[in-house]
Amino acid sequence: MMVLETSKANAILTVLQGCNNLTRLKKIQAHVIVNGLQNHPAISNSILNFCAVSISGSLPYAQHLFKHILNPQTQAWNSIIRGFAQSPSPVQAIFYYNRMLFDSVSGPDTFTFSFTLKACERIKALKKCEEVHGSIIRTGYERDVVVCTGLVRCYGGNGCVEIARMVFDNMPERDLVAWNAMISCYSQAGYHQEALRIYDYMRNENVGVDGFTLVGLLSSCSHVGALNMGVKLHRIASEKGLLRNVFVGNALIDMYAKCGNLDGALEVFNGMPRDAFTWNSMIVGFGVHGFGDEAIYFFNQMLEAGVRPNSIAFLGLLCGCSHQGLVEEGVEFFHQMSSKFNVKPGIKHYGCMVDMYGRAGKLEKALEIIGDSPWQDDPVLWRILLSSSKIHKNVVIGEIAIRNLSQLGAVNAGDCVLLATIYAGANDEQGVARMRKLIKKQGIKTTPGWSWIEVSDQVHRFVVDDKSHPDSGMIYQKLEEVTHKATMAGYVEDKSQFIIHGSCSEECLESSSTYHSEKLAIAFGLAKTPEGTSLRIVKNLRVCRDCHEFTKFVSRAFNRDIIVRDRLRFHHFKGGLCSCRDYW
After folding, report:
1. For residue 470, how many other CB atoms are within 10 A of its CB?
2. pLDDT digits (tens, 9 = 90+) for 364-384
């Protein structure tokens, strides 16, 4: 009899391995019940696991099955916890974990902790993460590489990067998954230089890389403009045969585009399989660089390839049309979004339209777009209108924009600076004084400005009047030389440039001799790179008027291409000219 039951159980387990839909599973389950094997641990766990975890399963049915399991073992608990951890209701995974601790004789294992930590990460349950961490230590799993990797991800996902790093550093051994988790943790938290340093540690410990490593590192390269590092990663991807991996390819395109090398992006694009994200990356890449015609070309190629455009594709299109001044084309694409492709315009699309009309000098039309949009109460659109008013020195529209921002309680230092610049251009000293007074009265704080530049595979960060760099003395000496040569080439310092309380902002509110971060980055780049090398700088704020003029004449005086990515767009400086045509 025992042999017969074992034979039937094995046969059923074999059939379960090939099950691929819930209807068939229920038929197998009926056969199980008929043969009295419903309490067979391996069979009941297999059925439960399919319902809880498989894409063809059913979590409600898994819950129903779980209720009827007598004294569920750890494997059964793991199935139900895992199922909910990856479901739209991850909090249920934590409820089952709690039940397991209090109601079951079965204890948690590696997988229990891993699935529970995944749920904590998804719902940002830091306190529960800390509680689970305590249980991990008490049960002796604090040296388990899988569990520790889950802790790194969970703490990182909850914004506790330092604790995640502490867990990572205390791991007795680290596999590639653990290294990838730490890179992802830093990258997602915005600590991109730290993410790239992790790669240095990996190389020192002779740890290899895979597609996940490359995607994480390339994302950080994109954010800090680390093109040289990105090119090295591209070479590694090629050596490992990963260029046909669509995720790696998309990350490479994004990196090249954000580092200002569109030729590199195009080279990757031409040699890889493509999905919607691939096409979007090319369209957005050319769009933010101001190449509207090229963005339109790739959009049309995408349609010919049978890929349906989404909101991101249209965002790249509208951005390109705005920067290149293709107003008619931009308006047509904006209308096609909903009428032809059933894509609902979002606030960013309306923002592009306001910017497009604003750049073209059609400020009344830009104001009309805001009035017709569902986002009249969002400061973003009014801030874009204010920037357009600054370009065209339109006091009236600028005051309308600042008044609406004030009514929304959203006025910041940058807004006051922009209106003050408009007043200064109109020789309205009282207007400038009002902006100064508003900033002081309301205690509006500025956003500190910084610039990144990559030299010799290292990313260097500068802030206004920075003296922290080891080569600080040399940098300031070089900057004096650079300023002199730029002046000889025609640069005239903007004496009306303003600063607020001595800190660097997007523009300024009183004259200052401060050294803005991008000037320091340019001086360092010129001192440390061979003649003819392009300089690539990433800035967190909008480049100010004086720095923009300065960079134009530096590019002429030193015969260098200088690519600056600021908060709004890319600026390609060459021979004393900028790709933005002085409208930004």
Report:
1. 8
2. 999 999 999 998 999 999 999
